[in-house]
Amino acid sequence: MTRRHLLLTVLSLLFVVVPAGVSHAQDTIKIGYIDPLSGAFAATGENGLNQFKFAAEQINKAGGVLGKKLEIVPFDNKVSPQESLVQLKKVISEGIHFVFQGNSSGVAHAISDAVRKNNERNPKERILYLNYSAVDPSLTEDKCHFWHFRFDANADMKMAALTDVIKQNKKIKKLYIIGQDYSFGHAVADAAVKMLAEKRPDIKIVGNEFHPIGKVKDFTPYVQKIIASGADAVITGNWGADMVNLARGANESGLKVPFYTYYAASDGNTAAIGAGGVDRIRLVGESPAFNPEPATKEMAAYITAYKKLYPNGDVNQPRIQTGLQMLANAITRAKTTDVYKVALALEGMEYTTLSGDHVVMRRSDHQLQMPIYISVHSNKNIKFDFDNSGFGLVTESKVERDKATLPTTCRMERPAA
Amino acid sequence: MFELVFFSLLNGLVFGMLLFMLSSGLTLIFGMMGVLNFAHAAFYMLGAYFAYTLTGYLGFWPALVIAPLLVGVVGALVERHGLRRVHRFGHVAELIFTFGLAVLIEEIVQAVWGRAAKSYEVPELLDFPLFRLFSTSFPAFKAFMLLVSVGIFVLLFLVLTRTRAGLIIQASLTHPSMVGMLGHNVPRVFMAVFGLGSALAGLAGVIAGPVLGTFPGMAQVLGSIVFVVVVIGGLGSLTGAFVASLLIGILQTFAVALNYTLTDLATALGIGLSAQSAFADLWTVTIAQIAPIMPYLLLILVLIVRPMGLFGTRET
Fold first, then answer.
1. Of B9, B5, B287, residue with least CA distance to A209
2. For chain A, which domains are there?
3. How far is A335 from chain B (nearest CA, A)?
């Protein structure tokens, strides 16, 4: 009898309806965040979520938007395009109109396409897709549409800056490209091959390798191949666990050539690279590094406040703050959360980032135009390290906005109100 | 070229021996109880997580011993209080039980340790390059992994063939009722084997965690490969598990190293295929790109040609 009693108790506990989700629709503006919160890339997604929460908190402290508070609502997509579409349905059913996503261009294509179709079919339930990190150029080129805005420099803009640096290094004769086998990895490789052929035709591409995304744990066989190819430099667009494990494999096998990367910092990368990568691992990004000094006092204060709240995290994607603040400004300017009017307000919007850069949301393709920075992994003059490792990034060079701007092939169809 | 072959062989050996530690337990359990234990890889994950936590308190070396023992105890308890009860309802019930257990363990791991990967690192004592040949270095920890797994292999071999306990286990594999008639406690033998198998999986987790990562999906990553290994080797055959483990380990490492495509094969055969031919995508995929599915291709091939596996005696 007692056992049955226990069972009943457990069952009744399970079915207690938790009065969660009491709607505060009146006093908050909900913003969906669809990114990996479990699986191989959970660390990256979790770190991004914290940065969004923090940026929203800062905006709320300063009075919010239209007198309302911003609320970040996370949705776990496990970096799967299919799962993302399921989560997007949830976003729609919860009445959320603004969605941020960044990890994986494969996911970005799926969401972008679904948002475009949804907005055509349900003009009353429109969604604005704010892409803070998925950099496949195609999203603002042949696949561009009115409801998508990108706050990160696309893969071509970044590769143009990287190849400029490679151009200067006359020691590089043989180059190896390794990347994840999906749209972004291929975009990086294609851009590298094309741009190097123009800038340094003497460089031989000795490897152009794709590996499954998020599946390889031990990169030793790949590193072995790089060593065997005799490459004297490596280009990789790897991010998250794939970059951590690649760096680890390279360290273990004693691969000592320079790496030109998109994302080899923070989220475990800086710690994994460690002493072996000093002055050797370079990274291209939309933000100046925080060393030897952050570009502005505001940025320094922001990082300090963030580290106080999330001691194990890093501000590794300042574009999150840029994107959220620009959205907030657009809502303020439109004086409504109506998606169409907010999108119109975002078009052509100018903004000064926390680092003091003047950026502008280009109207023709919704690609944010910004300066691009190259920084290097180091342990000298480090004020703000990554992964609490004592190592961090130091700014090495800057490409001004007008130089970083690339033409677009986007032919955007503008919907009627 | 020699450098590439040598190090690929070495890495294949490390990975293969790791697979053997997992597959030996799985195949022993299957051979004896007829249960395909879906939760086996989950015990491997438990080993890594236990070791991660214990390393924080006691250091790596005590964890290396304690974590597998703990996993073994968990395994024995699962057999004693779970599997044995389910046993009387037949194999399907057992299969479903172990499947549910795998899901349960994964959820528990996520609840206790979180969804993000843990920074379970190589111990400092072994964090150096063991030797350097040409321009490649070989990490000491991998050598240690190889050493441990070879040691386990030798130990397992000796126990099974040279001791009385091994004799009983081997007899229980084929004639459980006869062993019972002779006065041995067969259920206890089952429990011991299940515990031992789990402990081996746990040990594999302890030494693989720092290299292959300690995260909630780690069981799934290796789980499917381990099934491939035991099926290719022949369910219930320890020799088969050993050969298949090394085969898969080396195959996977080498496949990554090779850039040949079907176009190259066609050229070698004198057939003109170019990047412009029909189905060009198919002809230009390199072996390296399909490396992750190679084990499964081999699995299908073995099932077609020799359904009982390389060293198996019964149909799978």
1. B287
2. 155-292+372-403 (3.40.50.2300)
3. 39
